[in-house]
Amino acid sequence: MLATWWADLSPIMKILWGITLTASLIFIIQSVMTFLGADADTDFDVDVDTSMDGADLSNIEGGSNLYTFRNFVNFFLGFGWTAILLEGQVKSTALLIVIAALVGVGLVAAVMYLFKWLSTMQQSGNINVYKAAVGCQGKCYLTIPAERAGEGKVQITIQGAVREYNAVTDGDAIKTGTPIKVVEAINANTLLVEELNSYII
Predict the structure, then answer these.
(1) Residues in Cβ contact with 140 at an 8 Å cutoff, skipping those fewer than 6 apart
(2) Within a domain: residue 200?
(3) Mean pLDDT computed over 18-28
(4) Global model pTM greater than 0.85
């Protein structure tokens, strides 16, 4: 039965099913690892990550960075299931793809907003960043552009917990994985940092 069903699908639907099932499987694995507290970070030079930190919501990736692995998974999850569910109702393939893509983008935006809001609420409720963050150490999570030309992200250990913040630097660009130290809290969500070994000769 399964083989017959698959053989009867059009090439486009086979691709859609492949994308959707793959995205769904990855989403399930991410969710299970997240709530089990697993840490499966994989950082790439292009700043794509698969953060799956545990119960601390400030470490759940996808809050404010568009180009992350989790967001790609969310997009294809919304895109794929929408295309499959509407395949018999929307006659135009082009229109079906457009609708599915819009749903995928909407899902990514909704998840990003949700986690950003949860992270902000948790950080503001538990920690006074201005007092507690200065001097804390951690690592660069997403590359920080040089001379405050843009924001990256860092993970620091603050009051016994690992938390994620936006970050800028006054010096050279700081690459993913580089040890850092907090110099100043610019606001509740953004830190000024420097390379931890920047003054070591």
Answers:
(1) 152, 153, 154, 167, 174, 175, 176, 177, 178, 179, 180, 193
(2) no
(3) 90
(4) no
